[in-house]
Design brief:
One of its GO terms (cellular component) is membrane. The chain has about 210 residues and is mainly alpha-helical. The protein has one domain. It has seven helices and no strands. Helix 1 crosses helix 6 and helix 2 packs across helix 4. The relative contact order is 0.17.
Length: about 210
């Protein structure tokens, strides 16, 4: 199950995100997409009132706060999933989740054009990710193969890869890259050669 087996999910996702330049592009654009999604989800406004005991903990500055909107609950789910993956990773990237919530909430509170910013962030991020897939990776996104879990997993792939790229769990990272490379080679070798006919050609025997 993809929610449980991180290694298997990472390797499968990495098959269409193997080229370094494509990974770099996704590291920039995937959080941008998530920012746009959370912005739209936060437009629901508070789904439940903020408890008095919680208010001081989510007030990071006079403007840096958020309410308990749909976006906040999505971010809570992301954080809990991060904890299940890796305790250290979850706390290292927790500030990014908070930054997404506070900046989107600030825009909603200060400008009526906030939905336009969320839309532009989502469209630009998605467009550039597709450029990376089709022109750098030369592979289409996995979501077009029916793997819709990748829409959720993309953020974890790029952020965890970024952390490992900086030296976190180096041996584990090398193992994952080797598995991805082997999986790509295995998939390539299993595809039929287009130059080879799929059926043996019929030969005619000359008549005597």
């Amino acid at each position: 199950m993809p929610f449980i087996n991180f290694r298997e999910t990472y390797v499968q996702f990495g098959k269409s995100h193997y080229e370094e330049n494509n990974i770099i592009m996704h590291m920039i654009c995937t959080p941008l997409i998530l920012w746009g999604v959370i912005g739209f989800a936060s437009l629901t406004g508070p789904l439940v009132p903020t408890p008095d005991w919680l208010a001081p903990f989510i007030q990071f500055s006079p403007e840096g706060t958020f309410d308990l909107s749909l976006g906040a609950f999505i971010m809570l789910f992301y954080f809990l999933y991060s904890l299940a993956l890796d305790f250290i990773y979850a706390f290292l990237f927790f500030p990014i989740l908070i930054c997404i919530l506070t900046t989107t909430h600030y825009l909603i509170q200060t400008t009526p054009d906030a939905p336009h910013y969320f839309y532009l962030a989502f469209i630009c991020g998605a467009f550039l990710n597709h450029v990376g897939h089709y022109f750098i990776e030369k592979r289409r996104p996995r979501v077009y193969e029916g793997d819709f879990f990748t829409v959720f997993f993309a953020y974890f792939y790029v952020t965890y890869t970024f952390l490992m790229h900086l030296g976190y769990r180096t041996e584990f990272y090398q193992e994952l890259r080797q598995e991805i490379n082997q999986s790509i080679q295995s998939s390539s070798s299993s595809k039929p050669d287009p130059a080879t006919p799929s059926h043996p050609s019929k030969t005619t025997t000359p008549k005597n």
